[in-house]
Amino acid sequence: MAKYKKEIADNLNVEFIHVSLDRDKDSALEWAKKEIFPWLHVLSDKSSKAKLAKYHTSGSVPFYCLVDKDGNVVTKGYQSSFAKAKEFAK
Question: How many C-beta atoms lie closer than 10 Å to residue 47's C-beta?
């Protein structure tokens, strides 16, 4: 969260979306509220409808995938996604 606040939060060219993999909707919502995420939270049962499920291709959690406005994957992974997002602020 600290890295997000420092490098991404004020960047109008980048928007975070959290896609939950939790199968228990109530637990997922409770966790997101506790963490006070400032970004959109999509539940796992809605990720297909939102066309976001196709971007998760890793078994790791959390998984980061930077997607451009046209839905093309720019980069995957924590370090590369944050580095590329930082470039969008320029």
Answer: 18
> How far from chain centre, in Å, is Cα 48?
15
Alpha carbon distance 52, 89 (integer Å)? 24
Residue 86: enclosing H or E segment and its boundaries?
A: helix 78-87
Q: How confident is the model at residue 90 (pLDDT cuts 50, 70, 90)?
A: low
- Please classify residue 56 by burial: count the beta carbons closer than 10 Å to its beta carbon, then call 0-12 exposed, 13-18 middle and 19+ buried: middle
Asked if the bond preceding 62 is cis, omega within 30° of 0, the reply is yes
* pLDDT level of residue 57 (50, 70, 90 thresholds): low
DSSP track, 27-67: HHHHHHHHHT--SEEE-HHHHTTTT-GGG---S-SS--EEE
Q: What is the pLDDT of residues 59-89, one digit of tens each?
A: 677 788 888 888 888 888 888 888 888 887 7
